[in-house]
């Protein structure tokens, strides 16, 4: 039996809320399991001791795990309960950590791409500096910068004050639709464009280097050795392409949506009769951003067979 979006708004809203909560919970469970396995294997087998890439993989898994644990419960609660009753302090804290973790994730990816670039293209001089202790320092630096110099997120929060049982409470704790466009543009630039630009520049340089030098090497090799080198180069190129597309595609919708919100384009073009379409778009956009945290363990660890080996 079809829903009436005009007369059955309450039923429709309830269905959407339940569906949203179910999808988010499933995403959270998958992401938490995947990232926990990655972290557990890394710590128990001490994968971080002799491998720089594994240090970044573990750090990325930690940021993804915490991001899911912080963001998904908040989003799930807001999808089910329209009133925020936990006070202003608890309104600020989850959003703060969500932005910190997002920034840490973005720049861990950027650090990994820079490390891959230096390892492949400038392997000669970079070898002496490519040590786990330096990777650990970089990870600590990423966390510190993300925590201290994070974009002033308070301007992006919307807190509507009201009363419940004659008590003054915050009825709404969401991203501010009326935040200045410059604030949203800065967020888009620092949390998406800049790290993505770093990733694209590094990986495009790596791809061209492998393509050029791979052919040069193959001309001096024959038989099984040349086939191994060729296949390894192809796998690296496919992996690099997958990393770029995963980050870009999963995070683009939510960033574009927030930019449209801040520019008032959505509020000026979508009437109340079609507001349910915007709700569905928001669900998909948020779901994709969370899905990226589920996808990263597969891209950075499960597809890296040596990570789960006994060595």
- Main sheet specs: 2 strands, antiparallel
For CATH, the homologous superfamily is named as Rhodopsin 7-helix transmembrane proteins
Fraction of helical residues: over 70%
By DSSP, the count of extended strands is 2
CATH topology: Rhopdopsin 7-helix transmembrane proteins
Main sheet strand line-up: 1-2
Shape category: globular
Quick one: CATH class? Mainly Alpha
Annotated CATH architecture: Up-down Bundle
| Sequence of secondary-structure elements | HHHHHEEHHHH
The helix/strand class is: mainly alpha
Rg computed from alpha carbons, rounded to a whole number of angstroms: 22 Å
User: Poorly predicted ranges (pLDDT <50, ≥5 residues)?
Assistant: 1-8
Strand content: 5-15%
Total number of domains: 1
Protein name: G-protein coupled receptors family 1 profile domain-containing protein
Main location: membrane
Membrane topology: Multi-pass membrane protein
Family: Belongs to the G-protein coupled receptor 1 family.
